[in-house]
Every structure is written in structure tokens, then in C-alpha cells.
């Protein structure tokens, strides 16, 4: 209500009289309420408006304004007020209505008021004459009023009926509404069919609330409407039927329902009737599924006839093919029962066999225009029949196969989908029995190699035996033929056979996707064949590995399914019990397969063996614990042998070669950790902390050692082992600090993160021991290392916040007399700030960066004094002489400006401004854009006047310039976005997003630090590229939460040439036109400024080619003549260097050919091309040209100014060059 009233108040000075009247009436009502010391509540508005309405004459124009306001107040009034004042309000509204029937705005306001009044009454009121009379008035208006009032009345009736007073399930007025509508339909159908359409619109909206006992009468009435041959009336009746059957429940008995459906079928429009047919089809698609709920057997028996009638419409030219197909698909999905399918599959004739016959006939030539939609219906039928598709749909598949031999582009895609549906439902065995592949050419049939990609895509949940007994031998025979062709040096034929073999083996994952006969078919010989392929066919390893993985993963997914065995058996032919037996069967092969996988894993390069790691995990999950641990001990033994032999460094740096055995065994150990028992984990833990963490001379091993440690701690059993040895673990990790290599730093930080997560509250002294290392890592050159270090800083803060004791006596360099400190977030900040006393600028800068991160995370947990002290301390570093320190300090200031409360930041504004100005003076232009951006943030936060007061007089020019540029950019942005000034909204959004960050996530922090966009005009700085990259990444992560009109700046630009021709990327000089800074566009001079005028003020047009205007002839960018580098890059007369360090000059905006390139050391730049002589043209008829007008003039004693031309001067013999040459533009070339 308040939002609506706020809009009304703004219209007090509107040019429209009605808006002005509403606004002034509202202001007067509010003044009256305030004079009586009342609050502007809905009840107060109601009382004031009703009092004024009673005191005002009903014909007064103010009455309409009062009712308009009352309509907005009623929805917010308490139900008790509406019920208690019902008898007082209704007579007033009826009286006003009688006097203002012709005033449509008044009528609509009255309808809105009556809607809320009646909808909030209890059941007893609906028996009173007053309520019945008011509701009857709404019904009459819903049929006879003007369009807007009629629509409002219909919405009011629907709203009232949808809000039944408890305990009624059907509204007390529903029966009266039904009687009224049926009476109107009977009375107006013959005399006023337009009124019938209007009442049908009301009927369609209230069908969900129609009384159940009136459904039969309603259907009989609606069935009479199409007999009047009014297409609009018929369509409206069909739409009501559609809504009726779409309702959840219809209380119609079965015989009447069947009769109703027969009547609807008799009203079927012609196939060419594009108006009525789609609506009728929609009725059928909803009526028969509703009938199936009442009597599924009878519906299934009747469906074949209806299906055939509708399907035959595909033979007619129509634009409703899609609607026909959707209707038929709905009938197949909801009306064909499982019993019908089972009977048809047993050879019993029923509705399903009739439907199959009809659908099969749809591939005839008479249906060709609708083949795409016919195939859609066939796909639905395949899916409905599922396993029974064979043999019921065999004839259809044969016809589809014939069409596929020479398909047209219009239906080829749909044809492939239909064949795929056949493969997925009847299975490859039955499908290929109908359409054999004939790849060997011995059968004399048609080769169908095009089916292999379809088989690969759609094969699933079938019998594995067909692949083992048929396709695998076929692949072997083709491979043998390929080898014979290769021996005869028939390379092309050998390549074809090789491709066919690979395609056949690519079918293996589909056959292994939940096969029905796994326990029977997958025996030792099949397992050995798969194993041999892993060894002998490297190109087939991913396919074979995926197949073996599917055998385990798909059965595990079925066992975990929440569906019942009956549903699973029906959908997949496999129950949970069978899936469990399949897993037990595969566990028998797990030990041997793990050995095969490990051997193959050691033969593949590290970058290409990720797929085998997933397969190993699958088979570890089904292997017995004894087998897993015995296998792990073998891996551990091989690892020990490799470490003892010293063969731990790769023989070559070739990434395609497999790594050393020690690296491979460690990778396998990482994969096996989740499946090991406590004893094996203990062995791995001891070997890792004693042998790997200190491998300073072998960085890859050290890196993998930290990776193993992290995965150990992340596993449940490994976490317990680590807790049992927590003291030893801490000491070993701290001892390895100095020996940590650069490549292992990221994984070490990850390991420390895992250790901190399990750290007991009594061992928090580990946090200050690793704090300095973590702080320095936050400034690492590797981005991933920095992110992990930030996560560790936050995690350590969370651990300190949980409480505990920091035993300072256990820290290195401190004696036992140092007292312990209680763990808190304040103590944590004290630890971190100790780094500000570091001896190197890098340490100080890293500490400030770490402080900014944890301050952003824990800003709400620290005290105000600590936050103020930190701000004052960092303020000092802003004025430091070291750029690295200043950069970090400016980042901290930026975070403070965004997240710190005004009460803390405001008193420090003068000190912040002084430090920024001092930094600006010291660093000259290096941090100028950053400082300017921070000033802009301060202005947006505190206002220009307050910031300007803190700036000394000698620096007023700087802040004034920033404000001018800011306002200029703001005006341009507002003009571009229709006045949407969103800078303050962006600032508030940044501060809100800063409150929503979770631990370990840096999106909001990075958005504050890097992503706050400057709105200053032309504020291009050296950080723009980095900022745009960060913002692009954030936008991708956050799903595009920013405004749609906010565009990211491009990273790379192409500088246009002098002649505005497109850039030729094949040209050697193309690289010189690529730049990371946005080129300035050439300013086009307006015609008014470039025109020339004579003494009389008339415009002069220069007809010659060489213009005297001041435009640059080269069309390039303006280049400062003292900037020789940019002059060489952008000037048309500049030069570029070739790869051989030769200079190539650019003349006239085009590069000289390579033949003209000169060596800098040998030749001079004396060679110059002669300036081309400009071609001179002579205009024909120039003696007729007017000097002061735009046309020609006639001269005395001369011919008229037409294109007279001596033919002798034009038509000359070939080869003669004397005389002028005339162009088509009327110019004579000398």
C-alpha cells in the first residue's frame, strides 16, 4: 500500500487531471489524519476515507478518487475490520454504483473493494441477502460490463471462489455461480453469441472451483455450442473443455465420461482447420489421460480408434503437424497400459498392435510431408513398448533402414534419432538382426557401417553376450583382413579396416552399461581379452578402461537407488539383488585387474593416465579389504626398492614418457588411501614423514610426499593416525620448513591446512610456528599458492577463534618461562602484526597483505580499538619509500574503506588523506591511478565536501580534478543508461557482498581489492588489464550477478590502418597492429566545420581531388613527434623491424615489400621513392559551370549545356594515345 501511495503522491503536479485529483485527495486525507494525531495506518486511511465518502455527494468527482484510494487500502486491512464493517460499507458502495454506472474508473474501483470485502467474509455471511446481492452484481458485470470492468469483475469472481471460508471445501457461492453461468449460456447462445463468449471466458477461469455436482450439466451445455457453426464460439468451448480436463479431479461417472469423450470425438475439426484443430487436439490429449485414471482398461481399448483417426491427418496438408504429434505422444504415454503391451508381445491382437500397424504405415509416401512428426511419434512408441519393441516394431525398423540408405536432409536427423530409439529399446542384437552391418562383404548385402556411430551413442542396458560372441569375433576378423591388406601394401584399405575395428570396440562401453547377463557372460576368457587389449592396444585403453569401470559403477549406482525392485526390474531388467550379485562377481576379478591396471599405469605418461586412476578406484571399492591391503604392501615394497635404488629422477624431460617408478607408486598410493586399513595407513604415514618431506634434492618426490600427507589427513582413518602422532607430525613438518622447495610449496601449504583443521586446542602453538611461512606464501608468484595461503590464514584464524591455549614455551627460540597465551582472534592478529617488524620489505608487504585478508574475514569479531590501531599502523606504511610496501598498504586501505564502519573510519579521514597525498608526492606517477581510485571511493563514501576539507590547500587542485572527472563520467553514464546513476548502488553492493563471504572463499575479498570499478573518465592505468581479468573470472564464478549493461573491457585491440582496410593476419607486419591498450578513435570533423565560405558567406565546394581541409591525409592517430617509439609504431612514415633485425619503412600507410628491406648496419636510408606524379583531369563542360549556383547556365552564342562530345575524340584506333581520354564521370584525362 505504501509503495502505491508513494507513486500517487508524486503525481500531485501531473498534467493529467485524474492523476492530479488522486494525489491531492490522498494528501488531504493524510493531512486530516495527522491533524487528529493519528498514524498513517491502513485502518486510519480506511476511517478517514469512509468518513469523507459519506459526507460527499455521490456524483462528486472526489467520490471516484476516494474509491480509488479505498481500493488500495482494502487489501491491507485486517480481516476483522472488513467483517465488522461489511453491513456499513456495502450500502454505500451500492449507492455510489447506482449513480455512477457509466463512470468506468469508479465501477472498477467498486469491483475491487467488493472483491476484498466478499472474499474475507465467513460462511454465515453468504446466506445473507446483502452478500448474495453484491455477488450477483459482480456476476452481472462479468458478463455485460465494458471490457476493462468485465475483466476486473471476472478476476474478482475467480478470487472470491478461490478463497473458500473454512471449514468449507467448496465456496458457498459456487453453486449460485454455476446456475448463473448455465442460465446465461442457455439464454444468450442463440440471441447474443458475443455475450456467450464473454461468459465462457469467465467459465474458463473458474473451472478449478466449479461444483462437482454440476460437471455433467456443464458438459452437456458445452457440447451444444459447436452446433451453431460459430468458429469463435466453438474455439471458446474447446478451451473450456481443455481447462476442464486439465483440472486435478472431475466428478463425472464413468458412463457419462465415455459418452462425453465420444461426443468430443464426433466434433473433430477438419485437418486443414488450423484454428480449431490444435485446440481440439489439446482437449483429446488431456481428456483421455483423465479417462484412463477412471477406467484404464476401457480407455486402452478405445485409444486405437482415436489414434488412427488423428494419425490419418498427417496425410493432409496442414500447419498443425506438431500439435498432432504432441497429441499422439500424450495418448501413447498415458493411455497404453502395461497389460496391453504384454498381450501384444505374446501375439494377442489388441489396441497396441493396431497402433503399431498405423504408425508403420506412416512411412508411406502419402505421409511424406509429415515424416519428421511421424518419426517423433515412432520414437515415443519405441520408448513406450521398451523391451517389447521386438518383434512388434520389426517392420517399422526395416522401413526406417531403407529410408536411411538415401535420406533427405529435412528428416535425416529425426531418422537417426528414431533408429537410436529402436537400438536403445529393442537392443542391438534384435536391431542388427533386422538391419545387419554387412561389414565383411561376404553376405552380398548392403553395408551399413553408418550404424556404428548410432550403436555407440544409443547402446545401453542390453546383453553383453552379443558383443562377446558376435562383435568381438567380427572385430578380430576385420583386424586380420586389415593386417593382410597392410602386408599387400594396400594402405587405404588397411586404414578402413583399422577404423572399423576401432568403431566396433568403441561399442564396448554401451554393452557394459548395466548388462543383464553380466554374471553369465563375463568369464575368465572375456576378462583376459580385455586385459590383453590394455597391454597391446594403447589407442583402445581409454575405451576398454571405461567399459570395465561401467561394469562396477553402474551396478553400484543401482544398489544405491531409492527405487523399488519392481520399478528397477521394469525399467532396466535388473533388480538390486542382481546388481549386488554382479558386484560380487566383479570382485573376483578385482585383484588380477588391479595388477593389470598398475602395470599399464606405470607405462603411461603422467599427463595421460587420469582415466586409469578412476578405474582403479572403482575396482578398489569392490575388492576385499585383505586384497586391497596386500596389493598396497606390494606397491609399498616397489616404492621402497625404487627409493633405495636411487632411480627417482626422470631419464628425460619428455612429457610423453612415463615417470620413474617411485613417482608412479606414490601416485598409486594416493589413489589407494581411502580404501586402506589403519595398519597400511600407519606404514604409509611413517614412510612419508621420515623419507619424503626432507627430499630437498628431489623436489618431485617432496611434492608428492606432501600430497600423500594431505590425502592421509583428509581420510577418516588417516586422520586418526595423524592425531595419534600429532606431536611427531608437527615436529617433522617444522623440521622440513627450511628444506621445502619452490615446486612443493603449494602442496606443503595444503598439507599445513589439513593439519590445522585437525589440530587439538592444546597444540595451538603450531600456528605461530608456521605463521611466518604462510604469510610469505601469500606473496608467492604462483597464484594457486597464494590462494591456498589465504585459505590457511583464514583457517588458522577460525581455529584461534574457537579458543584454546597457545603454549609459547614450545616455540623455537623461547624458553620455558614464557607464559602461555589464551587463544583468541585478537591474539591471532597480534601474531600476524609481528611481521610488520620484519627486516625485509617483502616480509612487511606480505604481512600487510595477510592482515588485509584476515581483517576482511574477521572484521566483525575484532574489537574497534584493534581495527583502529591497525588502520593507524598501516597508514604509516602508506607513506613508505618502498613500492612493494606501499602497494600492499594501499590494498589494505581500500579494504578498510569498503568494509569499515563510518564511526571508525570517519575520525581517521584526515590521517588517511594525508598519507595518500604523501604517497602521491613520493611515488610520482607509479601509484597515481590507485590513489585516485581510493580518493574516488572516499568521495563516494563520505561526500566530496568532507573529503575536500581534509585536503590541504596546495592539493585542492588534485581533489577538484578527481571530482570533475567523476561527475563528467557520471553524467555520460547516466545519459547512456537513461539516468541510472548506479555508483552508490555499486558501492553499497560491494559492502554488502563483503559481509557474505565464507571462510576459505576469496571472491568477495578479491572483488573488494581488485574488482571495484573506477568511474573516472579516462582512468586507464597499468592495472586495468589485471582488474578486468579478475572481474571476468569473478563474473564467471558468481554466475553473472552483475548488471546486464555492465560490459567487460577487452584485453586486446587491433589498431586500424590509414585506409581503414581490414587487418591482414597473413601479413608479417600484422603483429605490429595488435595492442593491449585501446586505440583512440579518429575524431570525425563535421561538415559544417570543414566547409569553406566566400566573402558573401556562401558555401564553397571544392571539386578537385586534393582537399584543402585540415584533415590528416593518413587517417591515423595523432602521435607526438617527440615520442619516437609511438611515432615508429603509428606513423604512416614509421618503420618496423623484421625477424632478421632489418628495418622496413612504411610509405603512404603501406609497408614496402621485403625486397626493399634494408640492413641497419650495412645500408643507409638514402633510397627514396620518387613521388608519384598526380594525374591531372580536365572537366568537360567547365565553361558552362555556374560560379554562384549549383547547376549549369546557358551562354550566348554557345550550344546548350548538354554532354556534347566529338566522337572522333572518343573512338580512336587501338594503340593511339594522342588526345585526351574521357572517363565515365565526365572528366578528360590528359
Automatic annotation (TrEMBL):
<dbReference type="InterPro" id="IPR052087">
    <property type="entry name" value="RRP12"/>
</dbReference>
<feature type="region of interest" description="Disordered">
    <location>
        <begin position="969"/>
        <end position="997"/>
    </location>
</feature>
<dbReference type="InterPro" id="IPR012978">
    <property type="entry name" value="HEAT_RRP12"/>
</dbReference>
<keyword id="KW-0539">Nucleus</keyword>
<feature type="region of interest" description="Disordered">
    <location>
        <begin position="1071"/>
        <end position="1122"/>
    </location>
</feature>
<feature type="domain" description="RRP12 HEAT">
    <location>
        <begin position="318"/>
        <end position="603"/>
    </location>
</feature>
<dbReference type="InterPro" id="IPR057860">
    <property type="entry name" value="HEAT_RRP12_N"/>
</dbReference>
<dbReference type="InterPro" id="IPR016024">
    <property type="entry name" value="ARM-type_fold"/>
</dbReference>
<feature type="domain" description="RRP12 N-terminal HEAT">
    <location>
        <begin position="13"/>
        <end position="250"/>
    </location>
</feature>
<comment type="similarity">
    <text>Belongs to the RRP12 family.</text>
</comment>
<feature type="compositionally biased region" description="Acidic residues">
    <location>
        <begin position="1103"/>
        <end position="1122"/>
    </location>
</feature>
<feature type="region of interest" description="Disordered">
    <location>
        <begin position="1146"/>
        <end position="1170"/>
    </location>
</feature>
<dbReference type="Pfam" id="PF08161">
    <property type="entry name" value="RRP12_HEAT"/>
</dbReference>
<dbReference type="Pfam" id="PF25772">
    <property type="entry name" value="HEAT_RRP12_N"/>
</dbReference>
<protein>
    <submittedName>
        <fullName>NUC173 domain-containing protein</fullName>
    </submittedName>
</protein>
<dbReference type="InterPro" id="IPR011989">
    <property type="entry name" value="ARM-like"/>
</dbReference>
<feature type="compositionally biased region" description="Acidic residues">
    <location>
        <begin position="1152"/>
        <end position="1162"/>
    </location>
</feature>
<dbReference type="GO" id="GO:0005634">
    <property type="term" value="C:nucleus"/>
</dbReference>
